[in-house]
Structure prediction request, 468 residues.
Amino acid sequence: MAPPPITARTVVAGRVLVHRRPQRSSTAQAARSSSSGSALTSRDKENVPPPAQQPPAPPQTLMPPPSTQPRPTSTNRTEGEDDDDDSLAQSDDSRPEDIEMLHALDANASEATRAATGTQEFFEAACVAARFLGHYPDLVRVLTEGLTYVVEDVPLEERPLSANDKYDASVETDIVWDAVEIFLPKLIRCAPYILRHDDLIARIAHYLESITKYVRGNDLTRIKSNIMKIANIPDPDSVFEDKSNRGWNSKNFAELLVPLTDLDAFKADPEGYEYRGTKYILSDDWPVCFYDLKKVQPGKAKPGFLMSLFLERIYRWLITGKGSVFNAQYNAARRYRGRPSVAHNGKVKFVTLPSILYAAIIGRHCLTSSTNWSDVDGAYWSGEEFVKSVYEAVFYDPDWADELEAWWTKRIYGPGGEGENDALVHKRKDTAFKRFLQECDGGNPRKRVKPNAAPATGDEQPDASTSG
Prediction:
């Protein structure tokens, strides 16, 4: 099936919605620069990342002479083309301190060690980026292909999401790549150097995977104990405090886990619904908990998908803070007392599909009876395959994804987050003050006499700008 035509997309909080678009807006750089210095939330500082085996130590010489640096062959170069003008050699803006920092990345390092090695800022940015990369990207592939986009200046219409004839793993790379560009700009600056060193790509990928596990552990803790409140499930006797009583062991939880296509059958006979027997649940059986049932239309799967109040509350709790979950007047851009949110510290004013799916996987797990982290349910449902099914849906209907991200951005951040910065919102808003100025016929204000100015003698010539 051929991909849909390329069309322009709206800008959301300084970034272009990531799907079929001929060019990225120049304001996307503003989103990257404003988010790159994001601070780590206090919640994330509570724990130390889990132990993780590190790749072999890098060589002592961090930046070998150009003549000794192997350069990958450009995918855009034709046979026989001169290789002397390789873009990898021409566009290296790497700074020695950035290169040294990347080689020093250690997911097990303490905050003091991170401060000493200059990796603290990158660690904080990576903790924000993890929520926007999602749980499952092949980060070696993402870094290799994404940094190649940058170095070879691959236009958006030639990248997999726009150019491929069918869905494959490179499409997923294209979908999640924006998170790296926005939140980890040092990788972009060092792209040519990184691409010349496979061991460094492996080190960075391993580091980001470890950070994702660390962040996910913190986020699961926050949601797990509050899932009944988030899902509006009554628990007067605290039965569901024991997680083994949740999931398919409870009608209330099961009704949220059941696939949308099986909802009628489940409601007709909840006790007879055998999810592990005759009713196999597959990864592309999208569950009820991700749907706004008020928007669902009979026989259709698209309306209301990923628009549920349950999912919105999960997202708010993780990204804009628990104070925003049940407070309609909450302003995600404002600094409240207590621990700052991911959105506040990351200067985030937009929602992306990978970040929605990050929240979705955590929310669904907390509905199950599994006492430990698991993204599988039964023999056929897995979170990774579910995410792939959604990304494939994006490939065949990018307009749906663009509209969904715009809907979420406005829902979470209000009108100021939907494609416009605050200055543009104020500029376009019709106000009484602007109407007052219009009623002045565009005339210049009269020149005022300073209070301590000498009195006029009567010999002065009238000011042409104020004379009537």
Observations:
- The chain has 21 helices and four strands.
- The two ends are 72 Å apart (CA to CA).
